[in-house]
Structures are given as structure tokens and as C-alpha cells.
Amino acid sequence: MSTRHSDFNAVLSGSLLLAHPSLREETFKHTVILIASHDEGGAMGVVLNRPLGKCLGDLNTEFGLSALANVPLFTGGPVQPTQVILCVWRPHPEHDGFQLMFGIDPQRAEELMNEDGVHMRAFLGYAGWTAGQLEDELRRDTWVVSPLVADLLEDSPDEQLWRDLLGQLDDEWRLLANEPDDPSLN
To answer: What's the pTM value of the predicted model, to 2 decimals?
Structure first.
């Protein structure tokens, strides 16, 4: 179930932000953002559905010579677009669900690569909000808040992910997610 922005004081760390279908600004149009941190100072996360079609090894020789060379690379957001952020998902060792490790260092990432069930992605840049900015955007219905879903990494990592996640919320969102950008095509 989505959060309809009634509680703007809720901490959104570990949630997904789905761009509202009416958001037309190209940087965030049809994006799915994983919120890594959110507190009174602001928020930050990474865009999960903007694959670059490259791997870390394509970025530079340092990564090209490491065990991380084949980690898929995504545009994480417009803030510090040359900064590499490594994220790892794995089944939680103590209970159902999964564990997210965000912004881990390359050495730790290499250690984790050999563990069962580990998914790893690299992001260039991130999405960031100053204090109160995200809450203001939520009031203006820029975003739809969604909990993480277990099969998040099994879905297509492109715009289809946005359509699938929004469509899972309810029939109205599914309809909005699948409407064409040009209304004359209806």
C-alpha cells in the first residue's frame, strides 16, 4: 500500500519513491528512487531504473582490474554525477526479507560478491533533498511512497520497473502508469 503523504514526519529511509505520473521533468520522470537516508536534515537516495548499459569495468581501469568489473552501472541521480556509490542487497541472515548495504567501500563489496544471493549495483551520483524539501514535494504530490518489495531486483531495471511498482499499488495507479505521454494516443 502506498503512503498518501498524510504523515510528512515519517522517516522514509528504506522506502521507494515512485515519480507521480504527472511529473514531467526529465531528470525524475518515471523514476523509482530507493531512499537510503531521511531525517530532519534532508534525504538522499538512488534512482533504481536508469541503467547505463555499462559495468564498473567500463568506467575506469581501477574497476576494470577488480572483481567488481562486471557490476552493472546506473545513473543514481543528478547530485555528484561522477561519484560512484556501491549498493548490495542480500537475504537477511536472521529473518525473512533482505538486508541493504548502501555506499559500501569497494574492498567490502569484493568480499560480499562471493556470498549466496548477493545482488550488487553501482550508481553514478544520487538524488538529494535539503531539510524540508522532500516533505514539500510530497505535499505537492510529486512522489508516491511505496514500501520495498521482495522481488525488487527481479523486475526490469528500466522504466518498466516504475510502471510495475506503481501498478501494484491499486487499479487507479495502474491505469495512470500505463497512460501514454501524449493524450491524443489514448
So the answer is: 0.86
